[in-house]
Amino acid sequence: MSLTPPSQLEVDEPLAINHCGAMARERPLTESERLDWLRLIRSENVGPITFYQLLARFGSAQAALAALPELAKRGGRQRPIRIPSRAAAEREVAALEAFGGRLLCRDEPGYPATLRAVEDAPPVLTLRGHAHLLERNMIGIVGARNASASGRRFARELAAGLGEAGLVVVSGLARGIDASAHQGALASGTVAVMAGGVDVVYPEENRELYDAIVAQGLALSEMAPGTEPQGRHFPRRNRIISGLCLGVVVVEAAQRSGSLITARFAADQGREVFAVPGSPLDPRCKGTNGLIRDGAHLTEGAADVIAVLEGMGKRPLGEEPPGEPAPPPLEPTPSELEKARRLVLEALGPTPVPVDEILRQTHLSPAVVSMALLELELAGRLERHPGHRVSLLS
Fold it and tell me: Could you tell me the residue ranges of all domains in the chain?
């Protein structure tokens, strides 16, 4: 049994959807453009959403890089914003290629269509292994690090069954359920999404498994090579796991598990959420049982997942039809921006607030609020949160 390939499930001609709603057809980037993309996403205070806003506003990464210092200054930054030099970007590419890795930018052919449709898709991925796996349908399997023996066995068998059906299994290379899922799918294809650099194995106990994945599957990351994983990196990794996939299966998860973060990302991204039921006496099953109670697909084997995915039919990745990219928004006047900065700062606080609420409170246009938020973020005064929410940094 096999599932429809991504080209038939999604769109005939893959499209890139930027934060402002414009849709850009995929195209090869020149080497110079790829270095500019890398420099921009590695610049201080530039995350994926900010990256796409800058690209939409200025038309190219090169122009955005030139605008960064002034934008940060207008947002209240006192010292110069850190922007990697072209030589630094070239060194990162050389370091990546030295161990057999390569870059893949969002607008380039080969970037997975499912992930491209996510609002905060990584502008640049670093890959090591067999990149062709990204062209196939993918399914995420995640769960507890301190998984039970039966949970690990179920994850291996589930991954093997889904692999036999033609799905590539995606997970996070953590101990427990993640490692078992990778092991079960080695023969059919598996993708490990790394929280640190694509060359940094964490935990170290999974070194042998990582080597096998690189040889038979694919490891990828949005971080620079050599980056040691930190706590804040794992939620970012989790939204890539869910973004790559048609759905995510949670095998075991406590009530405050990181796996539930992945499930929430999956739901927010319009993916299917599957959960394996467990004993109510086992705290490792509280999270999965809660997901089922909240509407996740009860999953007792690969057939349950396959039945749901085969019933999906065509899967649109964006609500807008293909068309010409939208023109960049008009630049607000200096007086409009000065007023917007004051009103937006008054509306912000340490508690995350939806951007729509800021629009309601300030009675400003979306373009003006967007620019004011962009300036504040580049100045290091604003933090973005899932669900179009922002907060002021102290």
Answer: 7-100, 129-310, 334-392
Residue 323 clears pLDDT 70, i.e. is over it: no
308 burial class (0-12, 13-18, 19+ CB within 10 angstroms)? middle
What whole-number distance in Å separates Cα of residue 184 and Cα of residue 215? 15
Token pair listed for 81? 């914003």
Q: Return all residues near 203 (Cβ < 8 A) that are at least 6 apart.
A: 174, 175
- Provide mean pLDDT across the span 266-284: 95
Domain 129-310: which CATH number of 3.40.640.10, 3.40.50.450, 3.40.1280.10, 3.40.50.2000: 3.40.50.450
Give me the mean pLDDT over the 149-170 stretch: 97
pLDDT at 385: 86
Residues paired with 126 in a beta bridge: 103, 221
Separation in Å, CA 302 to CA 166, 169, 208, 308? 12, 12, 26, 10
Phi, psi of 295 (to 5 degrees): 115, 0
